[in-house]
Amino acid sequence: SGAEWKDVPISCTEEGDQKWFGEMKFGMGLDFPNLPYMIDGDLKLTQSVAILRYLGRKFDMMPPDVARGDMVEQAIMDIRQFLGNISYSPQFDILKPVYLDKLRVHIESLTNFMGDGPFLFGDKVTYIDFMAYAFLLCHRALSPENLEGPIDAYIGRVANLPRIKEWLESEECTDRIYYFHYPRAHCTWPGAPGPGP
Amino acid sequence: SSGINAEYGGAMPVKLVYWDGVRGLAEAVRLFLLYIGEPFEYERIELSKEGFGRWIGEIRHTPGLLFPNLPFLMDGDTLVSQSVAIMRYLGRKHGLVPEIEADQMKCEVVEQEIIDLKVRMNSTCYDPFMGIPGIKEGCDAGVFDHEFMKANFIKRLEDRVPMFEELLGAGFCLGGHTPCYVDFLVYEYLDHMRRFVPGPFEGRANIAAFMERVEGLKGLKDWFEGEEYKAGAYINGPIAKWHGKE
Predict the structure, then answer these.
(1) Whole-complex ipTM
(2) How many Å lie between the alpha carbon of B131 and the closest alpha carbon of chain A?
(3) Potential cystine with B10: which of A21, B76, B150, B157 (Cβ 3.0-4.6 Å)?
(4) What's the whole-model pTM score?
């Protein structure tokens, strides 16, 4: 979107935990304190879906068909939650095949929905493309063989959007050092940092 | 209802499709449909081998159902799956959506918060190892510790329920005297949770008042006083560790 933004990371350490749970969580004037949160001037917002939809409305990146947009958004959240659940399970290895079955169906639905694309809703890039991109990278880290073919081409197209490409190639890009999940919360598969697309 | 947007749906009543006898993710949609007074058919898929076979073999292949899942709503040629998408769709159709940006943001935060809690409750109540070939119940490889997860869920509720208590002091979720779609999601899922673990809800007067307020709404009062509601339903599917059916 070309908006100016600033990242305020909280470190994944004992000290970071104390900072969030100690002073930040209830001291920031958030109705439902949570991470991530976003501040835009006087506006404070939590919940990644609410944040993305706010930005989508602000920067005209909403899907042209609202009901379809909501369905894709929720379908992405569904599979992402499932991966999140199993990643924190000590029995991750046993649950992984169940997840992979669901992932294959999800990828097929997404690919059929998108058709030629180039993006989920055709020519218009929407906030849902960024949700899909971020979570597809996570799925790919676990199961690269399921992310081949048209879906891989789609990931490449999002990564090549001019300002995204710039970010991914920049020194500040945290994709190279960040985990997918919070490694301090008994996470069996936090998703080791990878090289990105 | 205050006037349906003309471009929605067709002449037929809408059809909601879900598992028979289970509130789960569909009940909030039923309650919303009753409140807005939209005539609807509720197609129930029987919880049996045959029913499951019908879902897998036939219903999930309904033309136009792009992301096959339950519940889904058919409104003329429009098929909407994902309960949140259905609620937002019906909200827009009947003008029961936030009008100003500040309300829209608040609505979406509340929506996501209640869904977060419902997702956690599902993880607490459903054994993820069930049905995996070769894993027998209670064996070392696939142990699902429901009590451990329930204890964690209670801690989570102790953190979040006070925030809902604060929110609902003002009336409905967005303040004011008229509910919007998110109020039905909040009602339904808070009800699941307070039945499952009453502790964190004790003494929460605003939440109790909100729940009564929803149950007393025109269009819903008859449902809550009726035989079908009183007979009770499964909250979660019968295979769940806690399913809520008395």
Answers:
(1) 0.90
(2) 10
(3) B76
(4) 0.92
